[in-house]
Design goal:
alpha+beta; BirA Bifunctional Protein, domain 2; 8-stranded mixed sheet; 9 helices; 15 strands; globular
């Protein structure tokens, strides 16, 4: 999909239309940076070039090649998230960090997606992942207050950023809005039963759909339209099969310490209680890359340095928030390219 921004964006009349959103972006970024610094966080800057761009099956990276002075060549990627680098910094001894990271994702373009965007990531060593839920609530309110917005808005939908967020588990959401007993298809060891889910699915199911494909379709078609309406929603306790980088929830190994933040039906943040078990992490990343190979005919390398860092990384929780989307909802912009100073052509 091509950009919907009037072309070229640098024409004075087009820039003047966007400029209020861009100034709002600057103000929100400044306020958030100050909020983190007041809490004793250290701002970091993850390298964009990586051995592995991330190992989620359905994320697509931009690839390049590193050439040494003697002509040796090696594959590198623009990262899809600064997560691996940030966790290495935790292993190095940092305890509270944040990064306004430029990230790149291929095959993504639309009102809420852009090939290059800003991911705000932050990590707290020794903190439970529930603390990040409180962080998300504070950041929503801060963004709105900074630009004088009483409501977050998107496509006629509104959300009160100052209201206490609704907390609903994925299983509860599937039961409430899709009539599906999701955990009936998840075994105690985390393995999944496609047929048990397909039999309940209120959406179209293709013969070659996996369990994860069906879950994603139900989520998009039946669940997300109800999330973040009137007040923010924290969708919690994802099945372990959908949380490759998160640790299992104590007392219920079928689900993980993962939540997503929604406002106006828009996903804003994704957070984990971080997995630090090297063997589990290697296995989960391998499963993701096997699925990528099956669907897209390609796979990305595993960052062995990242796995090694997990051996000394402390227990921690981390979150990734789409900063541009937050600016959109706070300023009332209709498209992500309206809040980017220099959109990708």
């Amino acid at each position: 999909m091509t950009s919907t921004l009037p072309s070229p964006w640098w024409r004075p009349e087009n820039h003047q239309d966007r400029r209020p959103f861009l100034l709002g972006r600057n103000a929100i970024q400044k306020a958030i940076r100050g909020w983190f610094e007041d809490l004793g966080f250290t701002e970091v800057e993850a390298a964009a070039l990586a051995i592995s761009p991330g190992n989620e099956a359905h994320l697509h990276a931009f690839a390049t090649e590193a050439i040494t002075t003697d002509g040796q060549r090696s594959q590198r990627y623009l990262h899809t998230s600064p997560e691996f680098a940030c966790k290495k910094l935790l292993a190095a001894g940092e305890t509270k960090i944040f990064d306004f990271a430029k990230v790149w994702r291929n095959r993504e373009r639309g009102p809420l997606h852009h090939p290059e965007f800003t991911m705000l990531e932050w990590y707290r060593a020794g903190a439970p992942y529930e603390t990040l839920m409180e962080d998300c609530q504070s950041l929503l309110a801060l963004a709105a207050k900074t630009v004088g917005a009483e409501r977050l808005s998107y496509r006629g939908l509104t959300c009160d950023p100052f209201a206490e967020a609704e907390r609903v588990t994925v299983a509860q959401a599937f039961e409430r809005w899709a009539g599906v007993d999701l955990l009936m298809s998840v075994a105690v060891d985390g393995t999944v039963d496609r047929s048990a889910l397909a039999a309940q699915a209120p959406v179209r199911v293709a013969q070659d759909d996996t369990w994860s494909d069906i879950v994603s379709r139900i989520l998009v078609e039946k669940i997300e339209p109800h999330l973040g309406m009137g007040r923010p929603t924290l969708l919690t306790e994802y099945p372990i099969a959908q949380a490759a980088l998160a640790r299992p929830k104590p007392g219920n190994p079928r689900v993980a310490e993962r939540f997503e933040l929604y406002a106006c039906g828009v996903e804003l943040a994704n957070a984990f209680g971080e997995l630090t078990d090297i063997d589990q992490q290697r296995d989960r990343l391998g499963v993701e890359m096997d699925e990528k190979q099956r669907v897209y005919g390609e796979r990305y390398p595993i960052d062995e340095d990242f796995l090694a860092a997990l051996a000394v990384m402390p227990e921690a929780s981390g979150a990734a928030l789409g900063f541009d989307r937050l600016v959109m909802l706070a300023t009332g912009a209709a498209r992500i390219d309206q809040v980017l100073w220099s959109p990708v052509p």
